[in-house]
Amino acid sequence: MRLFDALTDPRSVTEAPIVIPDDIPLLELADSVVRGKMKFSPPQMRLLIELLPYHAPRFTAVATAELNGNSFAELLDKAIERSQRPKLIEGKALPVQPLAAEGMKKPFSRLRRRV
Fold first, then answer.
1. Nearest to 19 by CA among 40, 33, 47, 36
2. Would the pTM of this model clear 0.85, i.e. be above it?
3. Looking at the 3D structure of the chain, how many domains does it have?
């Protein structure tokens, strides 16, 4: 809690906020703050913390495959070929059993709304 109070306390900022030049990339600014070369005001630090994920996103990818003697490129080509073929839908109609008329004369059960 003391760190948060120190960052938000107006007495901790004795100088006017530093004017940040436009030609310095955000990643360089973050690096200089981490290394102690620059010190920003608490609002500037909060802004830097909020903007950093948008300027330096994390890119990750995970691939799982059983190669079975094939190369990854061969498997990728086969998958691309499969995705470009037309989809075949094989469906069979199931036989419908007719209901007795006595069963249809009763009122329908009310569906209660589940919240």
1. 40
2. no
3. 1
Kindly state whether residue 49 falls inside one of the protein's structural domains: yes
- Scanning the structure block, which residue is given the tokens 């330096």? 56
Whether the predicted pLDDT of 12 surpasses 70: no
7 contact partners, CB below 8 Å, separation of at least 6: 42, 45
Write out the two tokens for 39: 């010190």
The one-letter amino acid code at 4 reads F
pLDDT reported for residue 115: 64
- Residue recorded with tokens 């620059």: 38
Please report whether residue 67 resides in a domain.
Answer: yes
In the block, tokens 């008329």 appear at 101
Q: Judge whether residue 33 has pLDDT over 80.
A: yes
pLDDT at 15: 57
Q: Which residue in this structure is represented by tokens 């006017």?
A: 16
